[in-house]
Amino acid sequence: MKIDNSGKPLGAALNRTDSRPSSKTSSESSGAAEVRGENVDITSFSARLASLEANLGSQPVMDEAKISEIRQAIAEGRFSVNPDAIADKLMASVKELLAKP
Q: Which stretches make up the Anti-sigma-28 factor FlgM C-terminal domain (predicted)?
């Protein structure tokens, strides 16, 4: 599993206003003084994203039960590591990262 921590939190992206100028129509590019923009209503979508973000924020970052299970297996000597599987997944991850532009 890969974790991409390069982005901003979802809340910051939802609260940001887009400061890019709107594209001009053919009449505007011919010298018309009026600049028209398009409005899009994404209120329901935005509300859904905010709800999902709030739900994700309340979820624990770690699975404490799984951690306890692994800790117990290590203590009892039952935990085994498969180095071939780790190496294969590491190589696949590197190849995927190198393939991205």
A: 40-91
Cα separation, 16 vs 10, whole angstroms: 10
Residue-wise pLDDT tens digits, 73-96: 999 999 999 999 999 999 999 999
Q: Whole-angstrom Cα distance, residue 38 to residue 22?
A: 8
Query: What is the residue whose two structure tokens read 């309340």?
Result: 58
- Domain coordinates in residue numbering, the chain: 42-101
Tokens representing 41 are: 């209503």
Which residues neighbour 49 within 8 Å (Cβ) at sequence distance 6 or greater? Answer: 10, 14
Higher pLDDT, 36 or 2: 36
Residue 47, token pair as written in the block: 């509300």
Report d(CA 47, CA 53) in Å as an integer.
10
Q: Which two tokens stand for residue 54?
A: 């709030």
d(CA 2, CA 85): 16
